[in-house]
């Protein structure tokens, strides 16, 4: 698959449509190597990746439940079960986070986070090129201090995405994409 084909055909595969196998071995190594090609102002290498698979997904579900109960002590059983099961839909989750260093004036925090987001996107493109499916998700858990702490992250770290990975179990239809010209203008000074 050439670069333009990969970009123009990229789709997000919902987690419930991702089955085994997830990328492993050389395939996973290539996905992570693709992440290293992200733009990186200042050569800070802010990106970090936690691989969550197997039984660790159920433990992550319990972390999500704990975080939900702290955010919303009145959460009902349906909401609790939704959080518990959230990590179980795909066979692998890669938690992409930025190891942010706010003391570097030359490279603002936003650039460190954008670099990590680009690295995460490279993982998605590489996964699709190798026949896997992926989706990047965030939600309240990405911004929750309980989740970050349970994952061993620092308060200053920023979870950019939970990348769900696996093999698509059925064809996913592409959604209608906007015309790029609707978002472009020319500045002439």
Give the helix/strand layout.
Blueprint lengths: L2 H7 L8 E2 L5 H11 L11 E7 L2 H16 L5 H9 L6 E7 L10 H21 L3 E5 L7 H6 L7 E11 L21
Antiparallel strand pairs: 1-5, 2-3, 3-5, 4-5
Helix pairs in contact: 2-5, 3-4
Task: Write up this protein.
The protein is an alpha+beta fold and 189 residues long. It has a single domain, classed as 3-Layer(aba) Sandwich (NADH Oxidase). The chain has helices spanning 3-9, 25-35, 56-71, 77-85, 109-129, 145-150, and strands at residues 18-19, 47-53, 92-98, 133-137, 158-168. Strands 1, 2, 3, 4 and 5 form a 5-stranded antiparallel beta sheet that branches. α3 (56-71) packs antiparallel against α4 (77-85). The longest helix is centred in the middle third of the chain and has 21 residues, at 109-129. The N and C termini lie far apart (40 Å).
Summarize this structure briefly.
With 189 residues, the chain is an alpha+beta fold. It has helices at residues 3-9, 25-35, 56-71, 77-85, 109-129, 145-150; strands spanning 18-19, 47-53, 92-98, 133-137, 158-168. The chain is 37% helix and 17% strand.
CATH topology assignment: NADH Oxidase
CATH homologous superfamily label: NADH Oxidase
Strand content: 15-25%
Report the biggest beta sheet as strand number plus sense, adding barrel if it closes: 5 strands, antiparallel
Return Rg in Å.
Answer: 18 Å
Q: Tell me, what is the CATH class? A: Alpha Beta
Return the structural class: alpha+beta
Residue share in helices?
25-40%
Reading the helices and strands in chain order gives HEHEHHEHEHE
CATH architecture heading? 3-Layer(aba) Sandwich
Poorly predicted ranges (pLDDT <50, ≥5 residues)? Answer: none
Terminal-residue CA separation: 40 Å
Average residue-wise pLDDT: 96
Q: Shape from CA axes?
A: globular
Q: How many structural units, i.e. domains?
A: 1
Tell how many strands the DSSP assignment holds: 5
Given the structure, what is the number of helices? 6
